[in-house]
Amino acid sequence: MKLSSKQWMKQLVVVMLAAMMLTLAACGNATGNTNNSSSGGNNAAQQGETNGQATNQGNEQAEGDADSSAAATTYPLTVTDATGTEVMLEQQPEAIVTLVPSETEIAFAVGGGERVVGVDDYSNYPEQVASIAKVGDMTTNIEAVTALEPDLVLASSSMNGEAITKLRELGLTVYASDPLTYDDTVAHIEQVAVLLNTKAEAQDVIDNMKQVKQDIVTKLEGVEKRKAYLEFSPGYTVGSGTFLDDLVTTAGGINIAAGQPGWYEVDSEAVVEQNPEVIIYPDFGEEQSSILAGIMSRPGWDAIDAVKNDRLVMVANDPLVRVGPRLVEGLQDIAAAIHPELFQ
Fold first, then answer.
1. Which bin fits 249, alpha (ψ -120 to 50), beta or left (φ > 0)?
2. Apex CA 137: angle with CA 315 and CA 177, to 5°?
3. Going from the N-terminus, what domains does the chain have, and what CATH number goes with each?
4. What distance lies between CA 278 and its chain's CA centroid?
5. Cβ(216)–Cβ(250) under 8 Å?
6. Which among 255, 256, 263 is positioned nearest to 238, based on CA atoms?
7. Distance CA 278, CA 244 (A)
8. Euclidean distance between CA atoms 68 and 49, whole angstroms
């Protein structure tokens, strides 16, 4: 589908916003102080686990009677989220608002979709969200959220910082997350299933994500890693401390930009020197990719192996920039881009 110039600019702004948020997250600003949501966005992170154990690498802890092996959650339930805040649920939440697309997708994937009463403007999956009330784009509409009277708001600590603070001041229950890896994302999905009392419904999603990763890792045993370069926003690449870097590593690649944390502006000469074997960029729905055009126009890049060997691979954008259930598709796409002989 061809995007209009207005739609493309909106997509670009969203991805650039996500890039900035990732940089902040990578620098340790987990709680953030922004009030943003993103189409690809909550591009920074989230995670979780259950049964009173530490989750999100110590940032999320469940302290209630929920048993990770049980189908039902016992309320009241107290958990500690990525902001270090204890979140108390007196009973199963029946009205849920999500502030970033990944949380929307998670809520639906784990079986809580019918209870979602509000979503951010960029949530576009699954298709049912089209008819759900919208609560703002990069700036959360606090009034719109409160009007829906949610008993649980799911947010990103790195992208919704200001909104989280305001909503909590108004007495709303907000659970914030911040996953930085694929495994963190799976754990966070498990945690949301516990919060919503949908552990049984979520199990297939969770098991599939774990199995797909294990299958990829097994198939890559003994296979030489290949140097890869990612450009998911024009002129910007992604470094260490991000879930995209984690995906590249898991998929048998070496992220040539891992020398710096977060998202940062491309150093053209450094990329030429690193000489990646594959270049990966997103599909924004444009008739002609602006990112690809930029890559092909840079001086000296015609000498890069990936360019010489036509190993410039376009992948679906949303599954790779949303830390939710479709990240499994993103991992598969990255693996196929780096090792097509094994995964295509």
1. alpha
2. 75
3. 42-210 (3.40.50.1980), 221-343 (3.40.50.1980)
4. 23
5. yes
6. 263
7. 15
8. 8
129-184 pLDDT, tens digit each: 999 999 999 899 999 999 999 999 999 999 999 999 999 999 999 999 999 999 99
Q: What is the DSSP letter of 79?
A: E
Residue whose pair of structure tokens reads 């024009």 in the numeric block: 234
How many angstroms from the chain centroid is the CA of residue 342? 25
pLDDT at res. 288: 84
**C-alpha dihedral (166, 168, 173, 179), degrees to nearest 10:** 70
Give the mean model confidence (pLDDT) for residues 9-33.
42
What CA–CA distance (Å, rounded) separates 275 from 277?
Answer: 7
pLDDT score recorded for residue 3: 45
Q: Are 220 and 245 in contact (CB under 8 A)?
A: no
Distance of CA 15 to the CA centre of its chain: 12
Residue 53 confidence (pLDDT): 33
- pLDDT (mean) for 236-242: 94
As to burial, measured by CB atoms within 10 angstroms (0-12 exposed, 13-18 middle, 19+ buried), residue 267 is middle
**More reliable by pLDDT, 60 or 173:** 173
Both structure tokens of 239: 């470094």
**Buried/exposed 290-302: b ≥16 CB within 10 Å, e otherwise:** ebbeebeebeebe
Confidence of residue 71 (pLDDT cuts 50, 70, 90): confident
- Alpha carbons within 13 angstroms on the beta-carbon side of residue 9 total 3
Neighbours of 132 (CB within 10 A): 17
β-sheet bridge partners, residue 174: 153
Which residue in the block uniquely carries the two structure tokens 């270090």? Answer: 84
Beta strands in 58-127 (DSSP E): 60-62, 77-80, 86-89, 96-98, 116-119
